[in-house]
Amino acid sequence: MCGIVGYVGKRKVVPVLIEGLRRLEYRGYDSAGVAYLQDGELHRHRCEGKLINLEEIMEEVSADSRIGLGHTRWATHGAPSQRNAHPHCDCTGKLVVVHNGIIENYHSLREELQEKGHTFISETDTEVMAHLIEEHLENDLVEAVRMAITLVDGSFALGVMWSEQPDQLVAVRNQSPLVLGVLEDSGTFLASDIPALLPFTNSVVFLDDQEMAVLKKGSWQVMQAESGELVEKTPQVIDWNVGMAEKAGYRHFMLKEIFEQPQAVLNTFRGRFDPETGEVLLPEINLSKKELAQIKRISLVACGTSWHAAMVAKYWLEKWARIPVDVDIASEFRYRSLILNPNVLVVPISQSGETADTLAGMRLAKSMQAKIITICNVVGSTMTREADGTIYTHAGPEIGVASTKAFTAQMVALFLLTLFMAQAKKTISGEESRSLLSVLLELPVLIEKNLLRIQDEMMPISEEFSRSRDFLYLGRGINYPIALEGALKLKEISYIHAEGYASGELKHGPIALIDRDMPVLALAPRDSVYPKVLSNVEEVKARHGRMIVIGTEGDDELQRISDYVITLPEIHEDLNPILYTIPLQILAYQIANIRGCDVDQPRNLAKSVTVE
Ligand code: M6R
Fold this sequence. Notes:
Layout: E1 3-9, H1 13-23, E2 31-38, E3 41-48, H2 51-59, E4 67-73, E5 88-89, E6 95-103, H3 106-115, H4 126-136, H5 141-149, E7 154-162, E8 169-174, E9 179-183, E10 187-191, E11 203-206, E12 211-215, E13 220-224, E14 230-231, E15 236-237, H6 253-259, H7 261-269, E16 273-274, E17 279-280, H8 289-293, E18 297-302, H9 304-321, E19 325-329, H10 330-333, E20 344-350, H11 356-367, E21 371-376, H12 382-386, E22 389-392, H13 405-425, H14 430-465, E23 470-475, H15 480-494, E24 497-502, E25 519-524, H16 530-542, E26 546-552, H17 557-561, E27 564-568, H18 576-594
Parallel strand pairs: 18-19, 18-20, 20-21, 21-22, 23-24, 23-25, 25-26, 26-27
Antiparallel strand pairs: 1-4, 1-10, 2-3, 2-4, 5-6, 6-7, 7-8, 8-12, 9-10, 9-11, 11-15, 12-13, 13-14, 16-17
Bound molecules: 5-amino-5-deoxy-1-O-phosphono-D-mannitol.
């Protein structure tokens, strides 16, 4: 989704804005722009398309300014075009606004403002903000912003600059993330996401909803938007470094992140259990033994890939902790008649911690007194600040829009949560815990050892099927969500239509699709449902479908029934989902590459979906 960058300080502002925006490219956008103040005048440059277009424009401009705002826009209201790109101006041309989110009542506000004589240039909801602030502006920008936002419904993160107060930027947040980067006396930064700040500072201040900030060269202040009352905030140091958000020689972030999975898995379980006793230690859950004992149901809430992690966790939690588990897509959860109470543990799962639907579901659950433990990858994100506790996945920054390492890390975190709950409820023996954890301990090495081989063996398969129109993915039991995840990965980055099915469902409809042109990928590890999956594979073969099977090393039967086989080492069946995800990520990556798709920034998608 859209990206915001702002800076006021000693450095030249344009390179800071461009560098910051480059770090936010992964969020997805279709136009970009910057504005800065120089010699008392406001300058603005915007263009459609990628940041490189804006950079070319800026190379022709010699700007010595030290204060400005930048934006990458992901179109919602109005097509991607220069006219609709941010920053947007008021009628005087002295005030600019950058905005993430959606102004829901923009239409009526626009009509009212037009009646008062304001002239609109763009089709965006954002331009309303510029004129609304202008309408309330006398001599104090902070006051005008405060008054304007009281009239607005919807979500917003705003950066505002006015040439009559050329030493400050004003920012305000409501349901859309904003963070300050602070460097003692040399400058203050504004961004919608941490990677934009990493080249400059690790010291950050997160804004909460309905908070405003005034940024100056050597100082910053946060206040309540409604009352204007100052809010005390202490900068937090983020332990991500700029290298973590770079490609490090890989062709794409996605490939780098696939190869970072051994480390992401290891970092997520490291220090969280005692290998001798098998006891899982999750003090960050912040729930007492008494509170844990009272939990009667768990509700997992997430979107996209994170939802698939939730589906895997349902199998684990019900099997080992013997607790009933609901799994909901967050955008559905928030609109059904929920039955929640203090005895329900709600677990929102999110890489970004900012996904609007998951956040709204979490807030709703909180208002119904449910306990909230989030599983999240981004330190300080909104969900982590509002939940009762957070189990962080330590996957490091995930830049590729297609989630890979965050997904495997989420599964690890959920597996630990499962054992933690099972141990609290005494539904698992010490021996069982130790044995499962010993498999988890081996996973980073197993993934590491097999990555290059899978990459090589997958290439002919990717080449053969890169021009396919459709793909089916089949999985059964705990691997059914992995089939869904494989299909999602393929469709989002290669634009091939792909569906994941529980393989037992094949005969209830999708089997009608099978012919000589239909590639079908089946997950067939030697687990408790293996014979059933084999029968489903035979059904496909009998109808001449093109069969790719991912199965267990040494299983000769697979060669007979499939066109292509990729094997993986045999491990405890409960942990197969983590291992079996890897070949599906590689298949999607290779096919997207062969088709010449933009792997890291697929069309129409955004990394962090902060609108409903
Ligand atoms: O940040 P979140 O985990 O909340 O994001 C949820 C989905 O938007 C995300 O997983 C999306 O489906 C990815 N593009 C999948 O690769």
